[in-house]
Amino acid sequence: MADTDITNLDIRYLSHAALQLPGGGELYYEDRGEGPVITLLNNFYIVSPVWRNFTDQLENRFRLVSYDLRNQGASSPGTDPVTFKDHVEDVRRLLDHLGIEKTYLVGTSISTLIARDFANTYPESVAGLVLVGLAFSPNGSLRRKLMTRSWLASLEAGSTKQLFDLLYPLVFCDQMVNSGGSAAYLALRDNFLALLSNTSIRENLLASLDVDDDPEDLARLQPPTLIINGDGEFVWSASMVEEALALIPDATAVTLKRAGHVPFFDDPAGFQKAITEFVRRLEAVQALPAAAQHI
Fold it and tell me: In the CATH scheme, what is the homologous superfamily, with its name and number, of domain 6-294?
């Protein structure tokens, strides 16, 4: 059962921290807590303040960095069209700005692709990789791109409300939708419409069509990797998890019961427990003498 009231999410912008980007854009970011660094990557439909509702236990143990994507929420894109590579490089820019040499990287939904590509481009900067409700496949890109094109068509035909109505019963699990009823639907819809524009969603979806779900990119991952899915996940099956685990050199998986595509909404405690155990295990290994790490 979820321990966060999703009808009353805290979505306030509490700081005015911003990183200036090439081309005139900027990134809004939040930096809180102390300890090993965990960087949280938004998907295209949530903004940085949303993470505060699902990371209170993590904040007590770790330093958490989150930010709005460059054309999302309180961030701005600059003058040029946003590319998927921009999102990957923005992670690098933000870590450099904050003086962070190494981070645990958490991606959710489409930002699992940002996390994957960042880890493959800058493996020395990633202590561990957490992929939550993956949007991409270990078998190739076709299905994701077909879904993305259908979401773009919905957006063009009926604006952000029609897109939300399409996504809501897919993203959230049966238990959440039925127990939350109209109150949860309306609260999440109102937040969605207030925080996200047709233009920013469209541009991000179009950018995502330019990146591929190449299985070899999973095989190239060097950092230890944790996959977290809900058992009500609409994109991945159990067999896809098995295929990904066979491809990634050092990977484990956790499935959260009664949870969907964004399992931190359904089970914040289970989500945080899985990440805490993953980070603590890796930190313990790093604390060992170099010779003992390979035994």
Answer: Alpha/Beta hydrolase fold, catalytic domain (3.40.50.1820)
